């Protein structure tokens, strides 16, 4: 019997025999709770938690109150590019809200999943790396679209500004990676002296972006430029680490990719109401200029007609928010996401150099997605923060040997045996009361743990290991 079960039995026995002595009152339904004894405190009420300038994303009831964690309260939606019409084949019943750990989400057993992995047909194009996702050529969104689930979370209603990032730098004396490296990427048409364009190195994957020395968030176009008069613009020239450090400083974190898209779609989760943009499916510049900061009809990168009123970044909250009150979920600057690989961090949302239909750079849809190196800093990438709501702490107990040496099983979850202890694993340590090596051990009653001596017969005689 496990230690946790023994503790629960003794605890409940004492409560039943001597309830007044422990000042404990039984609540209705405690006998039916399989986890009684592990977490008796109720979940905090999500309606009592709010954070300044953050929007709560989660299920609500008919009275517009947040659903508690005792019930299914996450969000299910169709995640991926909007250009793939296969999302229309997804049934509305697949979007019914329920916990992600129910049997509906895990229809196959572990053995069935392992069998499919081992005996499935090989991909003729070769194996795909971990975390690989097929993307659409226009907006870079994941294809084909699929139904995903996210737990409730809070997300900033607007991007982090130069003013807010400046407070972080002055308080912590933080230096961004662009400052440490000594350069950052600037759009060629934004150079103070275009005549010196040939003196700068170009990005091999985006030739219109050039590396300019001494460029960072305070001097976004290089030496001589300034972020002054742009304090309410989103901070740029920040790497993935810079963004994560700021979020940690304010007690938050970067949003996950699924979380971000759930917030961007703002209720347009099903196959019947899913749209390309937050304002609908109209991809005309005349309509889009009132909702997002994008490139427009001019030729890239030298002709920006500024139909939306801005040639580069625009102040946050300039354009109308989406249905959930979030600003700049399309255009202005790309946003760093949590997770991904260091060499291919994920950014979402599009920026002021992107177009509506993908004719110039990415199509700035709600599924717009790109990847870049984690140390990259440019003039069109910023971020916003997210935060998980408070939940009760649940403790899960394991036996000592399993917690230290792993579970006793034939194979691990991937069908491998290299990580599983073999026969005799419990005898790798022996308890000895020999006190020859320490003069103070004779006064101690605690048995000492020493390594076991193993003798292996080698090719040239026995070898001793201690």
Q: Please provide the count of β strands.
A: 16
User: What is the rounded distance between the termini?
Assistant: 34 Å
Estimated structural class: alpha+beta
- The average pLDDT is 81
Q: Which descriptors apply to this entry?
A:
466 residues, alpha+beta, four-stranded mixed beta sheet, three-stranded antiparallel beta sheet, 8 helices, 15% helix, globular, disordered C terminus
Structure in a nutshell:
The chain has 466 residues and is α+β, with helices and mostly antiparallel strands. It contains eight helices and 16 strands.
Molecular structure report:
The protein has 466 residues and is α+β, with helices and mostly antiparallel strands. Helices cover 15% and strands 14% of the residues. The chain has eight helices and 16 strands. The strands form six sheets. The protein has a four-stranded mixed beta sheet, with helices on one face. A three-stranded antiparallel beta sheet has the order 1-4-12, with helices on one face. A three-stranded antiparallel beta sheet has the order 5-7-6. The longest helix has 15 residues, at 3-17. It is globular.
Strand-helix topology:
Layout: H1 3-17, E1 54-57, E2 75-79, H2 110-119, E3 146-150, E4 153-156, H3 162-172, H4 177-181, E5 183-187, E6 201-203, E7 206-213, H5 240-249, H6 257-265, H7 285-288, E8 334-336, E9 345-348, E10 369-372, E11 381-382, E12 386-387, H8 400-405, E13 429-432, E14 448-451, E15 454-458, E16 461-465
Parallel strand pairs: 8-11
Antiparallel strand pairs: 1-4, 2-3, 4-12, 5-7, 6-7, 8-9, 9-10, 13-14, 15-16
């Amino acid at each position: 019997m496990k230690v946790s079960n023994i503790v629960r039995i003794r605890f409940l026995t004492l409560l039943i025999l001597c309830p007044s002595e422990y000042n404990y009152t039984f609540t209705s339904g405690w006998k039916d709770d399989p986890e009684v004894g592990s977490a008796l405190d109720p979940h905090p009420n999500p309606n009592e938690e709010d954070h300044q300038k953050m929007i709560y994303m989660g299920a609500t009831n008919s009275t517009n109150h947040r659903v508690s964690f005792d019930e299914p309260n996450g969000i299910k939606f169709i995640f991926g590019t909007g250009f793939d019409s296969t999302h229309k084949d997804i049934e509305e019943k697949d979007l019914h809200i329920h916990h992600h750990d129910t049997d509906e989400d895990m229809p196959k057993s572990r053995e069935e999943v392992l069998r499919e992995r081992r005996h499935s047909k090989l991909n003729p194009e070769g194996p795909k790396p971990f975390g690989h996702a097929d993307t659409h050529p226009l907006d870079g969104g994941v294809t084909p679209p699929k139904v995903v689930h996210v737990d409730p979370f809070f997300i900033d209603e607007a991007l982090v500004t130069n003013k807010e990032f400046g407070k972080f730098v002055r308080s912590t004396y933080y230096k961004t990676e662009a400052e440490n490296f000594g350069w950052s990427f600037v759009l060629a048409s934004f150079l103070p002296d275009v005549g010196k364009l040939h003196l700068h190195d170009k990005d091999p994957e985006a030739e219109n972006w050039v590396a300019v020395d001494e460029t960072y968030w305070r001097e976004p176009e290089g030496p001589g430029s300034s972020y002054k008069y742009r304090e309410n613009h989103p901070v740029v020239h920040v790497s993935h680490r810079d963004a994560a450090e700021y979020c940690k400083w304010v007690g938050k974190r970067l949003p996950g990719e699924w979380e971000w898209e759930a917030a961007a779609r703002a209720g347009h989760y099903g196959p019947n109401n899913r749209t390309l943009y937050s304002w609908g499916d109209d991809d005309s510049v005349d309509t889009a200029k009132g909702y997002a900061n994008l490139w427009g009809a001019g030729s890239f990168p030298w002709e920006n007609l500024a139909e939306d009123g801005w040639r580069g970044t625009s102040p946050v909250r300039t354009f109308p928010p989406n249905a959930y009150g979030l600003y700049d979920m399309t255009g202005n600057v790309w946003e760093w996401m949590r997770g991904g690989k260091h060499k291919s961090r994920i950014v979402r949302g599009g920026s002021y150099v992107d177009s509506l239909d993908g004719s110039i750079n990415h199509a700035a849809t709600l599924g717009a997605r790109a990847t870049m190196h984690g140390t990259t800093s440019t003039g069109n990438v910023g971020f916003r923060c997210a935060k998980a709501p408070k939940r009760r702490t649940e403790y899960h107990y394991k036996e000592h040997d399993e917690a230290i040496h792993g579970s006793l099983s034939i194979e691990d979850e991937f069908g491998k045996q290299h990580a599983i202890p073999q026969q005799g694993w419990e005898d790798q340590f022996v308890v000895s009361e020999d006190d020859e090596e320490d003069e103070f051990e004779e006064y101690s009653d605690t048995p000492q743990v020493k390594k076991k001596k193993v003798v292996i017969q080698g090719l040239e005689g026995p070898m001793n290991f201690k």
